[in-house]
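Recap from last week: sequence in, structure out.
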Amino acid sequence: MIGTIFGLSAFSVLCVAASSCASSLPPRPTVVPFPYNHGKPHAISPPRTKTCYVHAFGNGQDDSQSIYSAAKACNNGGTIALQDPQYIIGKALDLTFLRSVDLVIQGQINFTPDIAYWTGASFKYAYQSASLFWQIGGVDVNIYGGGVINGNGQVWWDRMVTNSSLARPILVGIIGLQGGTISNLTLSNPPNWFHFVANSSDLIFDKMSMIALSNDTNAAKNSGEFT
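Predicted C-alpha cells:
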C-alpha cells in the first residue's frame, strides 16, 4: 500500500505558473445534471493553480508511487496530469485526501494482474465483501480526460474457473467524496464492478464508457455499477 512520498523527481515536473501549465491540458468538461437534478446548483470548481505532470517509468514498472507523490504535491488547488500512453498501478492506492484537485487521465491506467498481491492488499469493505484497487475521495475533485482505466479482468475471470469464491477488486472506489465530477473516461474489464461509491455527495457522472469483454470462453463476471 502506498504511503511514503518520493521527491519531485518521482514525477516529471511541478508547474506553478497557471498560464504555462494549462497549455497542454484539456479543458475541464462543463458537466450539468440532466434531465433531472437534485434541486440546487451543482458546485463549480475554481481554476487550479498548479499542475503535476506524472511521467510513466515504462517497461512494465509500477507508477503507483509517482501518482501518489503528485497527488500530495498538487493537493489543495492543483491538477494531476497523466498524459503518457501507459501507466501501471501495482500497489493499492489511497487518494481519499484530495482537496480542490483535478485528475486528468489521458493515457491508459493498467492494474497489474497480480492476483496474490491484490487479494491481500486491496481496500476491504464489509458491504458484500467489496474490495478496491484504489480509492479516491475528499472535497471538490474532478476526474476526466478521455483516458482508459483497465482492470485486466481476464486473469480474474479465468481464475474463477478453479476458485469460484475468489474476491475480485472493484475498478474504482469513490469514497467520502463531497462535490465533483467523473466524466469522459473509459472503464475497461474490471475484475468485479466498475465503481463502488460510498459516503459521497454532490457528484455527477457523465459520458462514461464501460466495457467488459472476455477474450476466451470464461465470461466477464459481475461487471456492473454500484452506488
